[in-house]
Structures are given as structure tokens and as C-alpha cells.
Amino acid sequence: MFKLRSQRQSLKSILSPIVLALVIGVLAGLGAVLFKSLLLLCIDLLWSGDGAFCHRFALAPWYLKLAVPCLAGLVVGVILTWMAPELRGPGVPEVMEAMALYEGRIRGRVALLKSAVTAVMISAGGSLGREGPIVQIGSSIGSAITSFLGFST
User: Fold this and answer.
1) pLDDT per 10-residue tile (average), the chain, 153 residues
2) pTM above 0.85, yes or no
3) CB atoms < 10 A from the CB of 106, how many?
4) DSSP track, 74-143
């Protein structure tokens, strides 16, 4: 009887982290899909026409090519300065810093604001990539879930 109980406890201690990792992975993947959808929505809002960003940008008048990136940079600058300074940077180094210095804790609003800020900047023509922000979005989702469940890193 004791051996069976010990085996169940051992199986539970192995399966629990695996299930948690699967849930976090699925939610992070969903976050990446939603981020891409947000990016496409921002492109639709900022640039008229049909087709890919490059096609829309090429057809835009010169004053929009100048004004849209400038205004987007101004809005993003305000957000980065006063609302969430941890959004600065590409994403991966910030996640590593959070792991090393802050016990893996990333504020919950990072996922939402990082998505919005990066989507606006990329769709406005900023020289950014999607990969770093997706890493930070997934990490903040994982951090929020593990903090909610009371796990430590």
C-alpha cells in the first residue's frame, strides 16, 4: 500500500510540471497568434489599401510616410517613459534580466503593453522584429501563471 501511494505521489510530482508547461506553452502560442493579428490590425488602421505592408507603404503619400512613424514613435515614447519602462529593448535580454535579478517575475501588464507598443511600431514602419516581443509576451504569461499558483523560480 505504501509503495503504491509513493508511486502515485512520484507520478504526480512528475506530471504536474509537465501539465503546467503544456498550459503555459499553449497560452504563449495563443499570445503569439494574437500578437500577429494585432500587428495586421494596426497595419490596416495606419496604412490604406490592400496587400502587404511594403505595398501599402510604397503607395502612401510622402507626408504619411513621414508623419505615421513620427507619431507612432511619440506615442510609444510616452508609454515607455511613464507607463512601463520594462518594455524597452528587444525582449529576450529583459526576460533574462528578470530571471537573474527579480526571481523571474514579470509584471502582468507587460504582455499587453509590449504587444500594443511593438505592433504599433512595426506597423508604422519601425525597424523591429516580432520574435523578441513574442518571447517577452510568453514569459510574462508564464510568470503570471506561476505567480498566481504560488510557485517560485
Assistant:
1) 57 76 93 92 91 90 94 90 75 72 72 83 84 82 84 66
2) no
3) 24
4) HHHHHIIIII-GGG-S-SHHHHHHHHHHSTT---THHHHHHHHHHHHHHHHT-S--SHHHHHHHHHHHHH
